[in-house]
Amino acid sequence: MMLSPLLFWFLILMFFLWMGFVLGSASKSHLVATPQPQPPGLDPEDVAALEDKLAQVLVITGRHVEGEVPVFEGHLKVPPDEAIVRLKADLATDGRTLLLQEEAGDRVRAMLVPSLTTEPEESQTKWWLHGLLFFLTFLTTTWAGALHAGVNLLDEPSRFAVGLPYSVGLLLILGAHELGHFFTARHHGIPVSPPFFIPVPFALGTFGAFIKMKSLSPDRRAAFDVAIAGPLAGLVFAIPALIIGIQHSELVAGSATSQMAMHGGSVEVGSSVLMALLSKVALGSAIVEGNELVLHPLAFAGWLGLLVTALNLLPIGQLDGGHMAHALFGSRRGHSISVASLTALFLLAFFAWPGLMMWAIIVFFIAGTRDAPPLNDVTPVGMPRKLLGYAAFALLLAILLPVPHALYKGFGLYCPYL
User: Fold this and answer.
1) Cβ(379)–Cβ(81) under 8 Å?
2) What is the bridge-based pairing of β-strands 376-377 and 96-102?
């Protein structure tokens, strides 16, 4: 379905108005837990013992049980970080972990959840599996890169070097993204696995990479740092790869569709604000001679890096942006943002760009609308991290939003429709 630029920007405006509404409504409400009957598997004496321990740091004003989790409400006597540290060892003897969640005003909700089972130690990590997956992904992306350049390595295996610009560029971007998460998590003392790369013998040659967190983040600050480190580290390689690749790409007139088809695909330089700026940096005044690029394999890898960054920065559930929204705005408002963003993603897929539908479905099933809470979900992240988070979401818009035709002259771009 075709969508006029005016209608597209109207939908974007309505989305942000909706986001403002859900933020405002979420900030005026709070979750009220409904008391539940105590299950027979939880000994009242154990609950009383846990309550005595918790009373060291919390003035308890309410209590109930959810499943097998004792939940207490009240006011903290000490800062949240100190409360968790003081009770960590004491609760460990009961196989419990303290989770603090914010409530209305200065009240908190303390949950004594069963301690999470830990994964094998680093010495038991199956490094051979991580290495094998990386090697297989290198092979499949090299094959995909060569195919993008018009070479089938099944027929001409000696020309494997043709696929290396795409393969090496993409693996550097994906690897940097996951290693950003990995080292930041280690910095905050969070056990985490090395990256798992996902090879596929078709299409792009990979479904990306991921790491596995083996415990909850200690607080919102750590959760934010781990989440944003991946996209920022990936961009360190994606932007140079795109600029260098664009310099080696072919610029064609917007009407040269037959030429584009012969070269296996192109991208409009005004397809996003960031793409337009990087194209201008790479090509300078030459960009006015046409407005579509037949991407060099390295540029294609850089463009995919931007797309991966944008998808990860979406403020939805388990995505990096979802963790960031939770850390910045809290659990309730973060969840509201997640639901609103996922709904908007499906609406844009229906009415603006059908190609988004596949990604919307993947995000729905993989990311959901909720993420794992940190142990201390009360202490805010602070202004420096807020500013960095706002800048990251502005970057998301710069990657996703197209340049309005009215601004093409301001960017120095050629548009055949003006």
Assistant:
1) yes
2) parallel
SS3 of residue 175 by DSSP = helix
Domain-embedded: residue 339: yes
User: Token digits for 382?
Assistant: 């602070």
Q: Which H/E stretch holds residue 267?
A: strand 267-268
How far is residue 325's CA from residue 347's CA, in Å, rounded to a whole number? Answer: 21
pTM for the structure as a whole:
0.82
Q: How far apart are CA 408 and CA 418, in angstroms?
A: 9
Q: Are 396 and 265 in contact (CB under 8 A)?
A: no
Distance in angstroms (rounded) separating the CA atoms of residues 170 and 234: 10
**Residue 237: its pLDDT value, please?**
96
Give dist(CA 223, CA 334) in Å, integer. 13
Residue 210 inside a domain? The answer is no
Domains contained in the chain, number: 2
Start-end of H helices in 284-355? 297-313, 320-329, 331-351
| Cα-based distances in Å from 266 to 125, 130, 247 | 42, 34, 14
Beta-sheet strand order (sheet of 267-268): 250-252, 292-294, 267-268
Domain that holds residue 77: 44-114
Tokens of 361: 């479905």
From 71, 86, 114, give the residue that closes a domain: 114
Q: Distance between CA 111 and CA 83 in Å, rounded?
A: 13
Distance between CA atoms of 341 and 329, rounded to whole angstroms? 15
Per-residue pLDDT tens over the stretch 250-309: 877 655 443 433 344 466 666 788 888 888 888 877 665 445 778 889 999 999 999 889
Does residue 281 sit within a domain?
Answer: yes
